[in-house]
């Protein structure tokens, strides 16, 4: 009985089948609640969609009215001998049904913008991704080397980390007004917000990761003749690379959470502009579709990076895939000649 | 009741062994340790890890260092490697004072310290790369060392694909590839199982025979110390002082069969006396606890 047959066992892994099943369930569970609320008439449905307005002067066909108002109006009509209105139970406009949102996934891309100079949805999305990309890249260009230096040398750690520790408690959105004043109203202040939100965490997280590197590896390198910069570039950096990569994935996720705040700084742009615009037009299925798209882009890029990571660092796994051999040939300093084994 | 078995004195040497030591003493002193003292400051005050240790190792000697846990063996070898600085005293290698780590003193650690991101071959090439060498010649040199430790099939494997014993063999090859004057080893086989450990001991003797190198080997395994060494440096704990330097009376070449030779056992008994002076459990009456109504006595 070596196989774990229990669904609930503390710190015991589940079989692959059960893991897949539960993964699907984790998405199906919220989806089924949403479907139930949308399609089962007696669940919630606080509104009535008017189908025939009868003798109520201010009702319009297809409009939503509150259930109690609908009942009240009909009661007074029946009392005075008029034609009662007819309607079906409905949810408020801000809660579209799943199928409407699914349709919106397609139609929101194919519907042209209301005004000529406004962007299409895909253009908005690309704009958002660009803001994230530049904010994250600029932050990483400074944050990664600085984090490694802080982790490797007590000097840099003492010189920078206390201030960064303080600064990271300042909420990035608080710098919105300032960054517009300094950088203007285009993308620069938005990129700055992503930068501020990412950079300070990045330095601290990476310096911690660097400090976790096994000291005996550094000592071994020293006894082999590695000194100063070589010690940093040939031992510390490659030693932390797989963990650094994991950190970067997590940090990229944090950068995404600053997107919406960044995009309302100055003029509203990108996916945030699209969401606000659709909200104004009261096309809520498009709002939902856009929000879910952000989630999908985030999750998909993370899954892709996780998959890539497995192949980028072949020494962390026991098996070597073809792709990882390719990468190690591509980046390796020495070509892997196969030696005669005799 | 303990029975005592009569053994010769560990000081008795057969003519061939004595001759060998006479020849050894003719050789130049390679490593000279003079009045080495190391203290650590901690919250509970000053800890004296090493107190006035002096010792000389000659060229091509195999020295084992043994002593109770915490007696400063690691501190000792780390100072020799240059990873730690002495509080007073000095270490001279080839009559030059040692300061800081340098590739002329190779080190093999107890933990596995292979670089996980480099293949076996590139691990072995690391030292040469640091010295500014590269290219195919360095590569074929590295392959020689890998051949020496019997791992040519694994030249392109990553360390996590190797067993513990193989990792330590690569670590030895990596240290030797720098052509050091002395190889320092801090309980290198401590984490291995008994069988692999015995294998590694024979490997190490073979390597020592084939490569002209002086080895200083720390262990807490008495048999390992005797089996490998010409001389054994016995340290005492709190503070770490030299207790005795033993000339091992077991002839070379060594083989595992020698473990039951009288001179081997005599040396082992001497080490036991020095390191575990008396067994705590033998000197006190232990309580008798019955788990069944009828006691099932062994003796
Ligand atoms: N960096 C340090 N700071 C303070 N005390 C230390 C330090 N390094 C070692 N010591 C102390 O020095 C003494 C000797 O330690 P060392 O590690 O050299 O012993 P050891 O003989 O190698 O022990 P073991 O057999 O457990 O490996 C110990 O009491 C230890 O607590
Ligand atoms: Mg030790």
Features:
heterodimer, A: 342 residues, MetI-like fold, 2 domains, three-stranded antiparallel sheet, 65% helix, 4% strand, B: 299 residues, alpha/beta, Rossmann fold, six-stranded mixed sheet, four-stranded antiparallel sheet, 9 helices, 10 strands, globular, binds magnesium ion
Estimated radius of gyration of chain A? 28 Å
Second-tier CATH architecture of the largest domain in chain A: Orthogonal Bundle
Give a count of the beta strands of chain B, DSSP E runs of length 2 or more.
10
Largest sheet of chain B: 6 strands, mixed
Q: Can you tell me the residue ranges of chain A where pLDDT is under 50 for at least 5 consecutive residues?
A: 332-342
Oligomer: heterodimer
What is the total tally of β strands of chain A?
3
Q: Low-confidence segments of chain B, ≥5 residues, pLDDT <50?
A: none
Instruction: Report how far the terminal alpha carbons of chain A are from each other.
Output: 46 Å
Shape assignment of chain B: globular
Percentage of residues in helical conformation of chain A: 55-70%
The CATH topology assignment of the largest domain in chain A is MetI-like fold
Shape of chain A: elongated
Give the number of helices of chain B: 9
Strand order of the largest sheet of chain A: 2-1-3
What features would you describe in this structure?
The complex is a heterodimer of chains A (342) and B (299). Chain A is 65% helix and 4% strand. Chain A contains 13 helices and three strands. Chain A has a three-stranded antiparallel β-sheet. Chain B has helices spanning 15-26, 73-81, 120-130, 135-148, 164-176, 194-210, 222-228, 262-275, 280-283; strands at residues 29-42, 45-58, 62-66, 88-93, 96-97, 105-108, 182-186, 214-218, 231-236, 241-247. In chain B, helix 7 (222-228) crosses helix 8. The radius of gyration of chain B is 21 Å and the shape is globular. Adenosine-5'-triphosphate (ATP) binds next to strand 1, strand 2 and helix 2 of chain B.
